[in-house]
Amino acid sequence: MESMLENIEISSVKLIDKEMTRENVIDIIMEYVTKSLNILLKLPKTVSKELIHLSTYLSKKKRKMFDKFADVDFKAIKELEEIIRQMREKGFLKEIDIETAASTIFAAAFFELLLYIYEDHYNKDDMFTALRKKMELIMTPYVN
Question: How far apart, in Å, do the first and last CA atoms of the chain sit?
Answer without folding.
Answer: 43
